[in-house]
Amino acid sequence: MQKLKIHSLTKTYDGQEALASVDLDIQAGEWVGIIGESGSGKSTLLKIIGRFLDADKGEIFVDEKKLPPVSSQLLKGHEAIKLVHQEYELFPNQSVRENIAYALRFYEPEYRNQRVNELLKLTRLEDVQHRKAKLLSGGEKQRTALAHSLAEVPGLLLLDEPFAHLDPNNKQTLADAIEDLKKSHRLTCLFVTHDASEALAWADRIVILREGNIIQEGRPEEVYQYPINQYAAELTGLVNILSAENNAGQRVIRPNFIRIIKDESKACWTAVIVKIRFKGTHYEYYCRTEQGEDLLCYRSRRDREVGEKVFLTSSKKHSQLVARH
Ligand code: ADP
Ligand code: MG
């Protein structure tokens, strides 16, 4: 598959709009991360693209060819598109190996075995390959579902919340597997998540969905650094939201661009530290300005204390003026 084009996709459930005229193009080899709050329409969009659900209106083109409605197909789904559902289903009484091999049941045993071995390695499941699916941890189940979907490399892989319910270790293992996947297979992938950090890490392009509308898209750095509004800013990471001068919207500044300085004459704000939190790689300093606004900044050392008065600064180029909503 070279290209997927979505035009004016609209979906309503019981009079409630879940998708409002969504347009999206995906090129071969591209990794697109969709982020949005719970209920913003992410799963609905993936189910429609994965051919499990019909939209009310709109069109989907694969390589310029318009797809017929799902309801007119004998079987749901599309041969070149694989969707790993949020609630993926495995055969509970079959082993990891058997679950993966099932996707290759029409192939010669020799090729099947070899491909299953490759997939077990890629998804780091070699050690649990003989364990029954019902006895797996959430992360192992998720990786088995992923391996199953990759058995025949799909033209487009759709991942719905691949990291939901995973503990940090499992998250890291899955993250490593996905990084390998990105390198080793020329895969096109559309994944959705409500946690932006993975999307920022892997996606070539980020799409922000809000109440069924795409409100912003762009390269991860672009979207992170120049969010279009408060929703986009908060969705993509911790951020300071300040009221702008003359009531002209809001000013957003990422905490990494605010510094504590010694020189009062260069300070943008005078503030008091209200809380310090150790985060492993750095400390979070929560401050309250004289104007009563909250400001968060990062610092590598704990050389100040709660209650202390500090001078804070940030360069204009790192603060972004945005619309209020
Ligand atoms: P997300 O994956 O971003 O959490 P969904 O696509 O699951 O969002 O849901 C979008 C909206 O549509 C939500 O308000 C949800 O309650 C509603 N919705 C989703 N599926 C159904 C359904 N089968 N019937 C009725 N409403 C639904
Ligand atoms: Mg969902």
UniProtKB/TrEMBL annotation:
It comes from Persicitalea jodogahamensis. GO terms for cellular component: ATP-binding cassette (ABC) transporter complex. Keywords: ATP-binding, Nucleotide-binding, Transport. GO terms for molecular function: ATP binding; ATP hydrolysis activity; transmembrane transporter activity. This is ABC transporter domain-containing protein. Pfam families: ABC_tran, TOBE_2. Residues 4-236 form the ABC transporter domain.
